[in-house]
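F.,

This is the one I mentioned.
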């Protein structure tokens, strides 16, 4: 465990919660499958620095948990460069890493060097990759990516067969996966989701009839795993969703939206704390912070905390955020600055150094839990918890704990 950093602002990353969420997800997926089906494999999505939680420690914990559960586990990133710290880390030399965003042809050398699996979505790119892999005599694993409705990447389903015929002859590429990505898996209306599953399943069947088989069939992001039971038929579950799971946000403790029919019970992995750096007693009618947008409504104490929008405590939360000190909520008042902001603590006798929770849970006087989540921030900002977690910047030290 590294020494506690000097700055009091900290993101604590609870790896035990990360492991629990891994379990919760795989159990939900497995329950949805017919009883004799093997456990699905896991591609834990750790892009964007594990959604802001820190890629290397999170990846290690996830791989360990997979091992404990006897689940084949690999990692998913969005760009090849994100795999570099994983490859540089000790203890996970043979980890399989897939890049879920299609590559450029000029990325071939990097993919070979880092030994990455890639999205097969362009013949030209695949030729370049095969040629590069030939130099060292290796095989690169790839996943055929189908655009079943997201319109972001992948090849069109009606072109899939011809595409497979033309690229399956490339000598140094082994297409062992087929995948797609859902546009609306986390929305209450499941029609478009079902349509994508249907197109995916039909395309898969066409390819199978032509003799192509895939070890990994994957489409299930967090929303799709949560909703599998309520929305999809058994064949679709078997075929389209669950030979390999591909969740991100749920691993980190958040449901992808509030619209799910059967949300997961998850544990947020990140909490964000700081401590009071100074206090001032002010009379009624004094202005606070840039723009003088807050005026003390009575004599009160204003506490300053060393966290601001450059840490990811977004300026848009001005007038909307609160914090927890010793089990009670207090409002953040006045404009949130780049590095600091202020809290109105009324007549409380808090001291410099007292802990302030921005994200996380505390206990109220009567023992009840009080909590602030990335969902609360997201609601206030009109965004999603993904953007909150990935928005906690690199200036905030991450401290890893197991409990
Ligand atoms: C980010 C991403 C995921 C994970 O999605 P969540 O909604 O976080 O579960 C899965 N697949 C692809 C292709 C992605 O880009």
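My design for it:
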């Amino acid at each position: 465990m590294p020494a506690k950093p000097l700055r009091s602002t900290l993101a604590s990353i609870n790896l035990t919660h990360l492991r629990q969420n891994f379990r919760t997800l795989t159990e939900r997926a497995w329950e949805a499958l017919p009883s004799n089906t093997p456990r699905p494999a896991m591609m834990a999505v750790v892009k964007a620095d594990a959604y802001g939680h820190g890629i290397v420690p999170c990846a290690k914990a996830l791989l360990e948990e997979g091992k404990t559960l006897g689940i084949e586990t690999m990692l998913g990133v969005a760009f090849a460069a994100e795999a570099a710290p994983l490859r540089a880390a000790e203890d996970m030399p043979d980890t399989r890493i897939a890049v879920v965003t299609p590559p450029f042809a000029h990325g071939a050398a990097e993919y070979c060097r880092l030994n990455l699996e890639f999205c097969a979505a362009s013949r030209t790119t695949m030729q370049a990759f095969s040629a590069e892999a030939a130099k060292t005599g290796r095989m690169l694993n790839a996943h055929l990516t189908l655009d079943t409705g997201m319109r972001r990447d992948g090849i069109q389903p009606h072109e899939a067969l011809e595409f497979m015929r033309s690229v399956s002859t490339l000598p140094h590429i082994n297409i062992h996966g087929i995948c797609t990505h859902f546009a609306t898996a986390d929305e209450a209306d499941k029609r478009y989701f079902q349509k994508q599953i249907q197109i995916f399943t039909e395309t898969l069947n066409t390819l199978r009839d032509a003799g192509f088989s895939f070890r990994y069939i994957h489409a299930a992001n967090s929303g799709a795993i949560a909703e599998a039971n309520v929305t999809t038929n058994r064949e679709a579950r078997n075929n389209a969703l669950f030979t390999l799971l591909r969740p991100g946000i749920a691993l980190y403790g958040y449901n992808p939206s509030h619209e799910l029919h059967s949300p997961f019970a998850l544990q947020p992995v990140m909490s964000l704390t700081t401590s009071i750096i100074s206090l001032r007693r002010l009379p009624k009618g004094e202005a606070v912070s840039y723009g003088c947008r807050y005026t003390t409504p009575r004599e009160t104490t204003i506490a300053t905390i060393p966290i601001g929008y450059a840490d990811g405590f977004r300026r848009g939360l001005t007038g909307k955020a609160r914090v927890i000190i010793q089990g009670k909520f207090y409002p953040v008042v006045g404009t949130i600055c780049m590095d600091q902001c202020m809290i109105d603590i009324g007549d409380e006798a808090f001291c410099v150094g007292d802990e302030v929770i921005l994200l996380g849970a505390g206990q109220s006087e009567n023992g009840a839990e009080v909590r602030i989540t990335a969902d609360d921030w997201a609601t206030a900002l009109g965004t999603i918890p993904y953007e909150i977690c990935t928005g906690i910047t690199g200036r905030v030290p991450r401290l890893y704990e197991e409990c």
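The two ends are 13 Å apart (CA to CA).

Talk soon.
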